[in-house]
């Protein structure tokens, strides 16, 4: 967000279609049409979101999108089908979906929109065509679930739930399994890899770099970034072709603060810590490891026993996917 001269930031656009639009995949707002309408996104489809992204990139800036992999997948391992608004996407169009012929996506259908009346693509875990996915440069940000899941719980607990509008948690919104499935699919299809960011040798597990996509496997662990932000962000920039400048880690100027608040407004309450900060600097002390018992006691004190049990079980359910992705992460210096 501090490089607005060269980068156009788009913050979590796909949640609009996932939760609110006529192609919505999740049930969170299924029985609340008023809330879907009030969101301003009740007409958002996956196609209209890509149309907006294309327009964001029309001024020559590189578009930087931060989003959730699970917004592209049906919850609970339902078989994926291509979003109706994207069924006529063809290779060669690139990312500019505005060039496609119009597709009408019904918003008057009674009941849940999913499953769609379309087919999926073999092996593709998403509702997006592979040819469209292949137009993007993917990178991945991970965080240990013992940190992210309690944070999720906090945003759905009084008093913050009054700000976010979320007053309950869903295990299928943790997102780790979906991120792993997307990651593996992109590697399998040669959309990323086999080279890994931050490594001087090609490939992994004996791969020699043949069929190189030209896009490195770039995984950042949030704790590594917080422990050594300058080195980790510099490595990220090197992998993605962004010029690194130390000043990009500071945003104390009023115009940066104003812009961040505007970008984060859609998901009010979820990013208050970031909004109220002015720079990304190394933690004075690394987080001391805690036993499972200590963590459970801490969660119980903050959220109560029922919520603490849900956090514990959800962390355990997602740890294997996190550890799998962690092996690909850029190694801190």
Automatic annotation (TrEMBL):
It comes from Didymosphaeria variabile. Residues 95-123 are annotated as: Disordered. Residues 95-105 have a biased composition (Polar residues). This is P-loop containing nucleoside triphosphate hydrolase protein. It comes from the Eukaryota. Transmembrane segments: none annotated. Coiled coil: none annotated. InterPro entries: P-loop_NTPase (IPR027417), Pyrrolopyrazine_biosynth_F (IPR053226).
């Amino acid at each position: 967000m501090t490089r607005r001269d060269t980068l156009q930031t788009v913050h979590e656009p796909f949640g609009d279609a996932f939760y609110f639009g006529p192609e919505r995949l999740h049930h969170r707002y299924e029985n609340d049409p008023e809330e879907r309408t009030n969101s301003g996104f009740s007409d958002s489809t996956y196609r209209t979101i890509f149309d907006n992204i294309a327009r964001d990139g029309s001024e020559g800036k590189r578009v930087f999108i931060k989003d959730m992999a699970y917004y592209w997948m049906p919850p609970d391992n339902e078989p994926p089908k291509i979003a109706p608004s994207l069924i006529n996407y063809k290779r060669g169009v690139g990312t500019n979906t505005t060039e496609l012929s119009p597709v009408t996506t019904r918003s008057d259908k009674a009941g849940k929109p999913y499953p769609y009346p379309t087919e999926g693509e073999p092996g593709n875990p998403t509702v997006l065509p592979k040819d469209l996915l292949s137009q993007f440069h993917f990178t991945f940000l991970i965080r240990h679930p013992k940190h992210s899941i309690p944070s999720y719980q906090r945003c759905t607990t009084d008093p913050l739930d009054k700000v976010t509008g979320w007053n309950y948690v869903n295990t299928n919104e943790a997102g780790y399994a979906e991120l792993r499935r997307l990651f593996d699919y992109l590697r399998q299809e040669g959309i990323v890899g086999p080279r890994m960011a931050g490594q001087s040798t090609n490939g992994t597990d004996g791969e020699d770099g043949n069929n190189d996509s030209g896009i490195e496997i770039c995984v950042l662990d949030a704790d590594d970034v917080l422990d050594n932000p300058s080195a980790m962000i510099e490595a990220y920039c090197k992998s993605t072709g962004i010029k690194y400048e130390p000043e990009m880690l500071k945003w104390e100027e009023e115009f940066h603060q104003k812009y961040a608040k505007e970008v984060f407004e859609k998901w009010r309450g979820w990013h208050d810590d970031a909004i109220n900060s002015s720079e990304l600097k190394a933690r004075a002390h690394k987080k001391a490891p805690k036993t499972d018992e200590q963590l459970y006691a801490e969660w119980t004190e903050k959220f109560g026993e029922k919520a603490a049990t849900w956090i514990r079980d959800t962390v355990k359910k997602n740890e294997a996917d996190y550890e799998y992705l962690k092996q690909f992460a850029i190694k801190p210096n």
